[in-house]
């Protein structure tokens, strides 16, 4: 059985991704900040993980160190600012980077030794993190910058892991109906779950950003 880590599997896109993998017979190692989950499947385990707390990251990695890992879905993230905000608040920028950038990178680097040859790393990015976004505006600066860094990490990691045949990808899921995206978003989390499992099972091209099943501009 293949083992997949899905961070932030408690709700929203992460929950839908965990459910998609479980439905196809994978073992899912999920996380939430509290360590609890609404999922009750035999192939699911939930661990506490707070990406902004380095001790929590090492405790999580220690708890799963006996698994060999076939996939990491770096899904957990935060968006703190009002969507209309354009000013940079350094404290909020730091808080955002602690989770979306430093915590995500810290976790991934700790897990690299556990990854099997040919495994996959998928980073949940955003159109808001791209330089190519059409209709670009100055809003949501902290979140946007955090996803831009994640995109570059994706490219760097893809190069580093070429020899281990590990495929590293970033995904722009579109605007999705979750606590973060809000009720007015057009995309359902389940659609993203399907896209992620498709990418996981079929894609062999490393170091790209994907949108709706196709390679997209960074
Ligand atoms: N929704 C959209 O429109 C949209 C668009 C583009 C990209 N994305 C990206 O898609 C991913 C999922 O977004 P979503 O909309 O599903 O978000 P969400 O509904 O806000 O869920 C966020 C998830 O991240 C976890 N989390 C929050 N703070 C954390 C921390 N400090 N440490 C570890 N985990 C933490 C939450 O766990 P708890 O339940 O324990 O708090 C939850 O499981 C994110 O990377 C987001 O940036 C979303």
> What is the architecture at the second tier of CATH?
3-Layer(aba) Sandwich
Q: What is the residue-mean pLDDT, rounded to a whole number?
A: 97
Question: What percentage of the residues does DSSP assign to strands (E)?
Answer: 15-25%
Instruction: Find the structural class using helix and strand composition.
Output: alpha/beta
How many domains would you count in the coordinates? 1
Largest sheet: 8 strands, mixed
Notes on the protein architecture:
By secondary structure, the chain is α/β, with parallel strands linked by helices. It has a single domain, classed as Rossmann fold (3-Layer(aba) Sandwich). Helices cover 36% and strands 20% of the residues. It contains five helices and eight strands, in the order E-H-E-E-H-E-H-E-H-E-H-E-E. The chain has an eight-stranded mixed β-sheet with strand order 3-2-1-4-5-6-7-8, with helices on both faces. It is globular. NADP nicotinamide-adenine-dinucleotide phosphate (NAP) is lined by residues 7-8, 10-14, 32-34, 49-52, 75-78, 99, 124, 126, 173, 175-176, 178-181, 185.
